[in-house]
């Protein structure tokens, strides 16, 4: 090699534009990487659709003669289900073990050898992945649902941008939780235990198995504000179906943003702790 | 200032071993046991040792992915663990046993992503990539996803990926492991070229001693976490008494092996028609002259000392015998 002296800028806060460029490039690569697996996207879409019908019929049955339950009417419930089915892949609530696998095999060493913080680089990749999922997995259920069910269309113009912002925040909150669950591999090697807890906990508490409004009022309030789970799924869906007045919707998105900050800070803290005691597996 | 400095570098791991049906005992294993080493800019250092000797652990500490238990390490004047992200811009690392490329992206996209990750100006990136494409013959598989590359192709990709940001130090952990002869030659040729340019410091761990012979003037042997040899390959031979051999093919076997001063017979083969002498004090000419008076010589050949044999002797020797250099 001829000239091999590094002339690259250090990644400090003074270089905000290059930082975004790097972040954007990693996110774009995340998009491309996931766009490779088109058959998996089709298979996932099929499963989402089947379960969409199943969940929709069950929830609609819960409305009974009154036609409403827990503050949702039938059309709102249909939207809640079909948008929720689409969001599952966007937030990637289950099945993400990339970090844990790389810790177990020692491949994580390659992540640590990059000039980008691992949390930043995994987040950028995840946002790229979510971008692909939004096109391939969120749009189709939103199109399929209205063919078979009367769905709720937002009345207020601000709902759609607020929903999109809420989805973005939901992806980051979910990423933070998944990163923490995966990071237990630094201590445990095998993450099956924490993963089972996460799968069960997130399904119940995020509003996937049933809208949290089905729970007693005080319990729902505690879950909403004191745990990150509703911020993963319930909040964007409630925003979309306008279950609450706009001001409450804004407040809930604010709670999501607070969880984003808290979880990303916690991820960095855990990562730092882990690196201190890290044993890179293999020769 | 040396580009790599290690003072009393040490790494201990705690392992739990079974000590009964339910009981587990904690045991401390010392992987690296007080290594002191200086590597100067532009040096090509071979860092070898048997499995479990502490080679990879040392490399992981120098690259900042593993925190030392004690001791001090500096690479390019930086503290590897504390300044890891800054150091990452100045070093390149290739692990033969694991990939740094993105599994599902074509090589070309991986390289482009690295340009952004390391924030390399487009012109510099293009120039370095062009050079690697030329020397490592990458063009045939630049658009193939990494998961579909053969091991040899992937390793050429890994080398390129490690060099695109123009590192000052290149750490190579078994870069030729599992490669066929042709790929090995390609990798060695490339590294030799890199070494000739003289501005990249190279630290190479390997089990293939031909890599070392071809590339490194300086050889550090580590065993049980300690440095047992630091010097040239010739010094290693001298120290461990490896000798050149003279193989003499005779027309007919002698009734008994001849005694030549300074060149004892090591082996008698082919029913006594092939004799192998070790050159201790005698020269080749003296052995030939001595033999010519005793028998009819059909052929004579000289065998250079085998580094593998020396190193095998070194690995087999108990740590106490080899001691510190």
From TrEMBL, chain A:
<keyword id="KW-0812">Transmembrane</keyword>
<keyword id="KW-0472">Membrane</keyword>
<protein>
    <recommendedName>
        <fullName>ABC transporter permease</fullName>
    </recommendedName>
</protein>
<feature type="transmembrane region" description="Helical">
    <location>
        <begin position="40"/>
        <end position="60"/>
    </location>
</feature>
<keyword id="KW-1133">Transmembrane helix</keyword>
<feature type="transmembrane region" description="Helical">
    <location>
        <begin position="246"/>
        <end position="267"/>
    </location>
</feature>
<feature type="transmembrane region" description="Helical">
    <location>
        <begin position="134"/>
        <end position="153"/>
    </location>
</feature>
<dbReference type="InterPro" id="IPR010390">
    <property type="entry name" value="ABC-2_transporter-like"/>
</dbReference>
<feature type="transmembrane region" description="Helical">
    <location>
        <begin position="159"/>
        <end position="181"/>
    </location>
</feature>
<dbReference type="Pfam" id="PF06182">
    <property type="entry name" value="ABC2_membrane_6"/>
</dbReference>
<feature type="transmembrane region" description="Helical">
    <location>
        <begin position="193"/>
        <end position="212"/>
    </location>
</feature>
<feature type="transmembrane region" description="Helical">
    <location>
        <begin position="80"/>
        <end position="97"/>
    </location>
</feature>
